[in-house]
Amino acid sequence: MPKNDKPLGRGLGAMLGNMEIPTRAENAQVVSGNTNIHVASIEANPYQPRTKFDEESLQELAQSIKTYGLIQPVTVRPVGNGKYQLISGERRFRAAQMAGLTEIPAFVRTVDDALSLQMALVENIQRADLNAIEIALSYQMLMDECHFTQEELGSKVGKTNTTISNYLRLLKLSTPVQVAVRDNQISMGHARALVVVEDETAQAKLVQQIVNEQLSVRQTESLVKKMLEGARNKKSKVKITLSDEVRNAQTAISKRLNAKVDIKKDISGKGAIQIPFASDDELKRLLELLQ
After folding, report:
1. Given this model, what pLDDT does residue 240 score?
2. Known catalytic residue: 90?
3. pLDDT digits over 235-244, tens only?
4. pLDDT tier at 167, thresholds 50, 70, 90
């Protein structure tokens, strides 16, 4: 049985929330719901977030198209010189090519780059078969190109700010980890546990361990916690000698505030200036001096 390639359950307007969509009388129009366009004159949408298509699923859809034809038209926009660019329906377009079709039905819409981007990305984000990295890249592109804040983006795609943030954090991971998520070697939960690991080599080793030992997300979180605690303990055992310049500054600040001042540094160069106080009055005095 060929897998269904159903249209989205929600209209574009519903998915885009309050976004103003051009009317047909302005700068968007459907020329024909059944306009046939040569496949060779259609180019892919550069904003397509999906980077990997399931070959078996495409073959099944191609076989269905050979038998029944392409039932649901793709949506395109004219880009000049008789060429068109896909707005949505790349999976159907690829399957139609595999099926050997020379022409396919299409809705032709005249839209600007910004609206084309929004339409392409929002439609694809709603699909269940996008992986977490592709969704994260789509969110980032919408924010960069359409100048959305996380809150505005959340309202457009129907997601909470926390959900948007969790996806965007995946883009901080090293490329090998992102590839592992994309290829379904590890889940989004595994990847989120690795975000706190700054060292890319350590990230790669953890991914290999997750795959080899088939660790759960909970086990991965525990493993990362132990690794970070071990690294902190190792750093704390290394004695850092302050330079003469820093020690002189520490003495000068202590005299100026008439209070004990302690400057601490770790092996990475990070540190803190600590000024203990014994009462609310002393805190008030120190704050007044610092201000």
Report:
1. 66
2. yes
3. 555 456 777 7
4. very high
Helical spans, DSSP H, in the chain: 12-16, 55-68, 90-98, 113-125, 132-146, 150-157, 161-169, 175-182, 188-194, 200-213, 217-236, 244-257, 280-290
User: Could you tell me which of 6, 81, 93 has the C-alpha nearest to residue 44?
Assistant: 93
* Vertex 268 angle, CA 262 and 269, to 5°: 45
Distance from C-alpha of 226 to C-alpha of 16, rounded to nearest angstrom: 43
Per the CB < 8 A criterion, the answer to whether 119 and 81 are in contact is: no
Q: What is the tens place of the pLDDT at every residue in 277-286?
A: 888 888 888 8
| Residue 139's pLDDT band (cuts 50, 70, 90) | confident
Catalytic one of 56, 90, 213, 221: 90
DSSP secondary structure letters along 262-281: EEEE-TTS-EEEE---SSHH
Assign residue 89 a region: left if phi > 0, alpha if psi is -120 to 50, beta otherwise? left
